[in-house]
Automatic annotation (TrEMBL), chain A:
This is Ribosome biogenesis regulatory protein. Residues 336-348 have a biased composition (Basic residues). It comes from the Eukaryota. It comes from Hemibagrus wyckioides. Belongs to the RRS1 family.
From TrEMBL, chain B:
GO terms for biological process: ribosome assembly. Monomer. Interacts with pre-ribosome complex. May bind to RNA. Interacts with NOL8. Interacts with FTSJ3. PANTHER family: CYCLIN-DEPENDENT KINASES REGULATORY SUBUNIT/60S RIBOSOME SUBUNIT BIOGENESIS PROTEIN NIP7. GO terms for molecular function: RNA binding. This is 60S ribosome subunit biogenesis protein NIP7 homolog. Keywords: Nucleus, Ribosome biogenesis, RNA-binding. It is found in: Nucleus, Nucleolus. It holds the Pfam family pre-PUA_NIP7. The keyword RNA-binding applies.
Length: 348, 180
């Protein structure tokens, strides 16, 4: 019994040791959460921070990853496996975890003009059967398209309407009408696309632009002017017409740091030209001077008059209509505003 | 940054000559060094040659300002003087206007100068002549355009505008972000 028990214990110990060494078993405090459909394992065990700090961190993380991967693979092989072309495969269950989509949800196509109209009027789309009974051929035929029922292109004779021109080709007229309808539909389709992309909806034919801007008009004028045999050399200018800017010769700038002395000389020459263009006689200035002199003369005269009359000198008023003794008193002081000392004339 | 074209130089000189007349020569031809005008982002800068050479190390989009900004070219290729040019306009100004202390503040807030705020004015100022505005203590405050001749100034009523405001030193605060 004892021997047996010793053997048993030894065997048990050996088994345990082997189990421990066996690399495919991993012991965890908490079981991992698996989502095999996504090949996902979720480890909720807290990381032993002391061990993490003491050990080589890379080594620690690698071993943790290895253990968890081992557990994931163990979990995978719990599912039924089969052999396909000498390879053992496992059929994965459906994924449980919801993954967000990579790209944003595509925007809905904006409604076409007809769809807008139908919604406004409450028109619902009615499903029609694909096949209809053709009375002529006595069989079921498609409602439209190739070999359709009541095919009006296959008629060998068309009755000429009473009010129509008898020489008109009714077959050609029908073909033309069909082509027109197709073209119209295509045009509407393009208009819908343009509207959905917020482009300018094309109009019919070549419509003139609603309003030409000043710049556009100026450009048109300049183009029209240069469109002569002599490239507009002898073209007359309108009064006040400005030359077109930003056309023709490209400007060539002087270097930033170049001939400073030359630049200075050029500026001085330019100043000389500007100076010489100024008129020698400034008419407004001359008139002002004349006016001032006349003013001065008139005040002199008035001062003189008042002096003779015995009034206080220097209190003369500018536009006194020869007042007799009025210059004295309060009124004289208030009216003499134009002669305030603050209005001195500064020296240049 | 680039030198001005002949056309641009002419436009600028014509504008400057409204304020300082033929004294532009003194800006172009200076005894204390070589100074030049350079265009950068539509603005005209007055720079000494030395600083210009240093500024070439800075790329165009990073360079905010160099030297003294005189003004800018508008989209229609007109030249506008900026208040930063006042340092160079004030010493050479040909026509001056002095404002009374009471009207100083109004002018510095960007208002035109009324007859009531006018202290002194240079003799012989013609209409629409560029003038530099000073306080009574001879501190340059800005510049503008004479709305009336000196002669007319005497006769108009006190509320009439005599100088149109163009720029004043208050812009250093008001337009801090656009002045360079």
């Amino acid at each position: 019994m004892a021997a047996c028990s010793v053997e048993d214990v030894l065997a048990k110990a050996e088994k345990e040791e082997a189990e421990r060494l066996k690399s495919i078993t991993v012991n965890k405090e908490l079981d991992l959460d698996f989502d095999i459909g996504n090949l996902l394992a979720l480890d909720k065990n807290s990381i032993n921070s002391r061990e993490f700090k003491q050990q080589n961190k890379n080594e620690f993380l690698r071993s943790l990853a290895r253990d968890n991967t081992q557990l994931l693979i163990n979990e995978i092989w719990k599912h039924p496996s089969e052999k396909v072309e000498e390879v053992i495969v496992v059929k994965l269950p459906d994924p449980v975890t919801q993954l967000p989509r990579e790209k944003p949800v595509p925007k809905a196509r904006p409604p076409t003009k007809w769809e807008q109209f139908a919604k406004l009027k409450g028109i619902q789309k009615k499903k029609k059967t694909n096949l209809v009974w053709d009375e002529v051929h006595k069989e079921w035929k498609r409602r439209w398209g190739y070999k359709r029922a009541k095919d009006d292109t296959k008629e060998w004779l068309i009755e000429v309407p009473e009010n129509a021109d008898p020489n008109e080709d009714q077959f050609a007229k029908r073909v033309h009408a069909k082509k027109e309808r197709v073209a119209k539909n295509e045009f509407n389709r393009l208009k819908n696309i343009a509207r959905s992309q917020k482009l300018k909806v094309p109009g019919v034919g070549l419509a003139p632009t609603s309003h030409q801007s000043k710049a556009e008009l100026a450009k048109a004028v300049s183009v029209a002017k240069s469109a002569t045999a002599s490239v507009g050399k002898f073209q007359e200018r309108l009064p006040k017409e400005k030359p077109q800017r930003n056309t023709g010769k490209k400007r060539q700038f002087q270097p930033l740091i170049g001939d400073f002395a030359g630049e200075k000389q050029k500026h001085l020459d330019m100043l000389k030209v500007i100076e010489s263009k100024r008129p020698r006689l400034d008419i407004t200035k001359a008139v002002n001077k004349q006016m001032r002199e006349e003013d001065g003369e008139s005040t002199e005269r008035r001062k003189g008059k008042k002096g003779r009359r015995g009034n206080a000198p220097g209190k003369g008023r500018r536009n006194a209509p020869g007042g007799k003794g009025k210059g004295k008193g309060k009124g004289g002081a208030s009216k003499g505003k134009g002669r305030k000392p603050a209005m001195r004339q500064g020296k240049r | 940054m680039r030198p001005l074209t002949d056309e641009e130089t002419k436009t600028m000189f014509e504008k400057l000559s409204k304020y300082i007349g033929e004294n532009i020569k003194l800006l172009v031809d200076r005894p204390d060094g070589t100074y030049c005008f350079r265009l950068h982002h539509d603005r005209v800068y007055y720079i000494s040659e030395k600083i210009l050479k240093l500024a070439t190390n800075i790329s165009r989009d990073k360079l905010v300002s160099v030297g003294t900004c005189f003004g800018k070219f508008t989209k229609t290729q007109k030249f506008r003087l900026h208040i930063t040019a006042l340092d160079f306009l004030a010493p050479y100004a040909k026509y001056k206007v002095w404002v009374k202390p009471g009207a100083e503040q109004s002018f510095l807030y960007g208002n035109h100068i009324m007859k009531s705020g006018l202290g002194r004015i240079t003799e012989n100022t013609s209409q629409y002549q560029g003038v530099v505005v000073y306080s009574m203590a001879d501190v340059p405050l800005g510049f503008g355009v004479a709305a009336k001749t000196t002669q007319e100034c005497r006769k108009v009523d006190p509320m009439a505008i005599v100088v149109f405001h163009q720029a004043d030193v208050g812009e250093y605060i008001r337009n801090e972000d656009t002045l360079t």
